[in-house]
Amino acid sequence: MAVTVDNISMRYDSAEVFSGFSASFRDGAVSCLIGPSGCGKSTLLNILAGLAQPSEGSVSGLSGRSVSYAFQEPRLLPWKSVAGNVDFVLDRSLPASERSARVARWLDAVYLGDAASLWPSQLSGGMARRASLARTFAVEADVLLLDEPFSGIDMAVKRRMMESLKNLWTASGTTVIMVTHDVDEALAVGDEVFVLSRHPVQLLLQKDLTGDPTPLRSEILALL
Amino acid sequence: MKSSSSNKNITIVVISVTVLLALWALAAWKVGSEHILPGPWKTLTATVRLLGEASFLAVVGHTLLRGLLGFAIAAVAGLSLGIAGGLSDGVNAFMRPWVVIMRSTPVVAFILLALIWFRNDSVPVFIGVLTMFPMIYINIVDGIRSVDEKTVEMARFYGIPRARMVREVYLPAIAPFVVSGISSAVGIGWRAIVVGEVLSQPQYGIGTVMHSAQTFLQVDILIAWTVVAIVLGAIFEWLIRLAERLLIKWK
To answer: What is the value of ipTM here, to two decimals?
Structure first.
């Protein structure tokens, strides 16, 4: 069952962020939402996460499924090591050995295997971002909500991460809803792109990513 | 780099203390009377003599006990009301005037009133509570307010149960504030307790013996007890810093 927002409306202060907005994100696919900063992409993720309530409309397709969220900021606990931060969100009913194996596996996946015992205050911005991604992934949820997951990460690391994550997500059939302002990120990891405008948010374009992305890239850039 | 700069600082501290002692010795020599200003050596021998006296432990012990009791009361009240005030604006608004009054009233005004109201023994404890409570209260309130809402939202999103929220999110967040509150409270409270003893004259107490030394013009004894009070205050400060290093490793 696809994750769907149906006819949602929401105001933030005096601005109308959503007015009868609808969208449906395919199951087991990576959906990338592109749009200008401050258009309401993060708010949409908050609505999907249940952290913000639309005044009208509904969300469906998430009940009974586990959801993990990479917030716009890393939100690490300064008093826990990198590994401790990843472990923090893991279900305590898992055996300790399983938890530490997961922490190690996902820290490796974001190239932070060597940084497990560091404090967050010792990390660069990009490393803190990757630590927070390891936390998000370690839950091994059915649905991932990712808010600008690759921003601030070094180009070389980012490219390797995007490639390996894309493979992992495809293999596990994870549903990923990812917000970005970077067209090339969306084209690199997305199965489907959604181009949004602001005030109120409108869906300008929704396209499957198959074949040569070059014409689509120009089409998206022309819309932004 | 770090160790060479700390070596340099130690050298500076040694020079600073030497200059202080030299100025003291010079002043004592200039005054020329041990009854008005004894020199450092004379004071040192008086301090050593104090340590050997039978009543030394009783005097220090009573003052320490008063300090500990006052601190315990201030800490329990400051911690519980501080948590309430940090979580509720109403409680904090209610507490604000009390705290402002406690902080702005001259300590001696409280002592004079306490002398009328309480037994001599309890006056220094009362004074200790009044000076330490507001420091602890204010720091706890600030600590709770400093807890990052977005981090709390993240933890809630992942369904972290309440007990773990308190243990792993709230307590570590307020720990640095608790330590700094306790550190400033103890610094001020310790001195206030000694002043309280000077004026209330309990049977045993550092303030009591300082007062009688002053009455009998035993200036060397008076300064010797001052040295004892300074050393004890420095030990408290060191213990607090030690606890801070053990509790707060992430900074």
So the answer is: 0.91
